[in-house]
Amino acid sequence: MEAISIPKCQANDECIQSELNPLGVPLWKVLAFEFWNVPHHPLGRGWVLSPEDYHSGSLFLGYSVQKRCMAQAFVPHEQRERKALMLAKRLSYFFIPPYPWEAVDFTQQPPDLVGGAPIQFVTAAQNDSIWGSTPLPPNPQFPHGIDSIAHGQTLSSDEWFRVLASVRVLVGIGLPYLSPSPWDALCLGVPFINVVNVWDKRQPENRATWRTQHDGLKYEEEPRVYHVLFVEDPKERARMFWEAVGKAVNATIDRCASRCFMRRSSDLTRGDRYIPATKTPEAVTARLAAILDTDWRRKADELNEQPKSTTNRALDCTLVQIRVHR
To answer: How far is it, in rounded angstroms, from Cα 301 to Cα 294?
Structure first.
């Protein structure tokens, strides 16, 4: 069940099992699907299915991009143009928070950080100003130096993959959150620049405290993912942007089917696809099988046996209902 629907189901006397509805579905049998890293289940994160491994206690089900990605021909790194693709669905993403690159002049590229020939920045984002759903400046345009390749049209899936396979780097701009596109990019040998919006200023390297554009990638390392902190100084942020873009454009990434983090750093420059072991169809199937084989009633009983506290009275009441009405 979609996580947002569970409270509605609980409030409906004909949905969840209760004294008034003894034939309803026991709450311990209801798993919630929540795309975002937030707990939306009365029994806690252990009943929440998530698309990414957030390392937060939720049930990592995940998905695989392997089949579609492998259908797209791999373009050798040396044959790619020095081109960067901005990850954006809509023009409005360049105008609303958390857009991080407002101080970046895409036409003035620092040669000491970029190196080599200038980088061409492109986007397939749609001009959503005509929809009127987001307040935008009059006659909004993409930032100077970023070329639209969509020309007012929506790229087909095949067109998108061809473009993605031909570039040197996919650049995050704050939105959209948790898009599958960075995983598609890595599978095509294209690194991703991930914006870190929140972090512990005392421990900036503590990724457990990070909130990024794509939290499923926050534990990935260079040369696959380049993380840029959203520091307060826009000029310093721009410098960090060019540093990350320069390294990504001039680097290649490595295929990794298993034991990815056991590889030496010197092994990560062979220029191939990157598919984590957790993103294969077999891994997704195995996790789904484990979820289906779980004794969820027993897990609920174990919660009921835990020491009670004043902070979980709502959970206690729910568990009492589970124990009585099943």
So the answer is: 13
Using the predicted structure, report yes or no on whether residue 161 has a pLDDT greater than 50: yes
Same domain, 182 and 287: no
Q: How far apart are CA 225 and CA 170, in angstroms?
A: 10
Question: How many residues can be counted in the chain?
Answer: 326
Contacts of 301 (CB under 8 A, 6+ apart): 323
Query: What's the confidence (pLDDT) of residue 186?
Result: 96
Using 50, 70 and 90 to split pLDDT, how confident is the model at 313?
very low
Q: Which of 36, 149, 152, 174 is nearest to 93 (CA)?
A: 174
Extract the runs of DSSP E, i.e. beta strands, from 12-168: 32-33, 48-50, 59-60, 83-87, 120-123, 146-148
Statement to judge: residues 141 and 261 lie in one domain: yes
Asked if 80 and 22 sit in the same domain, the reply is: no
> In this structure, are 111 and 148 located in the same domain?
yes
Provide the pLDDT for residue 135: 82
Sign of CA dihedral 236, 239, 241, 244: negative
Which residue range is the domain that position 178 belongs to? 66-273
Show the DSSP H helices in the chain as ranges. 6-11, 66-70, 111-114, 157-166, 181-187, 234-249, 281-292, 296-305, 313-324
Of 17-21, 91-95, 180-184, the least confident: 17-21
Distance, in Å, from the CA atom of 244 to the CA atom of 84, rounded to the nearest integer, reads: 12
pLDDT exceeds cutoff 60 at 324: no
Domains identified in the chain, total number: 2
Choice among 16-25, 227-236, 311-320 with the minimum mean pLDDT: 311-320
